[in-house]
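Tokens for chain A. Residues wanted.
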């Protein structure tokens, strides 16, 4: 019986560490295997591909699990892009991925994003950079413009996040009541508008200026504090910061 158990354990180890046609991972020194390396050196010592391999668990015909991890990251374009994909998109990155592997990766990335948001909720959103850090993982890879409303308490702590509008590739349409109804309902002391530019260029458009002006004037009339309007994009040659902030640029007052 003990011999049979050893055979089963060996078979399971081989399934997890190698596949036909790929380089067998069991040929590597044990300290270079992803799980063993994590246990010995800590999670920060692992590469992106090694961390992905732990969740993928097994490879596919023609590539071992580390090679599979490298291929799907390359197919996505970046780790950030990989993290923004849903299970169906992840499954389409490599032939034979399967629903189980795709669902596991989608769940892992979602947990990471939730942990980041939970951590940010404990802190003040006092700067545009803090807003960007909170939402970039969620918004940067949207294929259309999305407008979010952040409701803050009197200390600037995040109370609630509302998705209030979505639009086209280049424009989002919103009525002021979509902004002010949640502000009143949840008795927020101040609020921030955030939207993305799918092109990556965070420079505001005329439509962005007009929306900001409309909300700014209405907020002043209603004695509400409009803290900022942040546009999430990516770094460009013209703009080093991956976001634009009306408050930081001093544009909120000039748009009244």
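Reply:
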């Amino acid at each position: 019986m003990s011999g049979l158990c050893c055979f089963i354990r060996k078979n399971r180890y081989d399934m997890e560490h190698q596949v036909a046609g790929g380089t067998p991972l069991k040929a590597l020194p044990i300290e270079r295997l992803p799980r063993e390396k994590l246990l010995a050196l800590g999670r920060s010592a692992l590469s992106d591909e090694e961390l992905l391999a732990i969740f993928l668990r097994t490879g596919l015909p023609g590539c071992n699990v580390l090679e599979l991890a490298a291929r799907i990251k390359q197919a996505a374009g970046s780790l950030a892009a990989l993290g923004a994909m849903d299970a169906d998109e992840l499954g389409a990155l490599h032939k034979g991925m399967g629903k189980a592997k795709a669902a596991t990766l989608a769940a892992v990335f979602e947990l990471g994003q939730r942990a980041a948001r939970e951590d940010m909720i404990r802190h003040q959103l006092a700067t545009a950079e803090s807003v960007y850090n909170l939402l970039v993982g969620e918004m940067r890879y949207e294929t259309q413009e999305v407008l979010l409303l952040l409701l803050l308490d009197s200390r600037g702590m995040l109370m609630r996040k509302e998705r209030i509008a979505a639009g086209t590739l280049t424009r989002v349409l919103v009525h002021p009541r979509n902004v002010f109804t949640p502000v009143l309902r949840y008795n927020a002391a101040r609020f921030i508008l955030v939207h993305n530019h799918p092109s990556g260029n965070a420079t505001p458009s005329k439509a962005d200026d007009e929306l900001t002006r409309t909300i700014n004037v209405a907020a002043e009339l209603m004695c509400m504090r409009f803290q900022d309007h942040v546009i999430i994009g990516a770094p460009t040659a013209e703009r080093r910061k991956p976001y634009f902030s009306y408050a930081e640029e001093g544009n909120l007052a000039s748009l009244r």
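The longest strand covers residues 158-166. The two ends are 82 Å apart (CA to CA).
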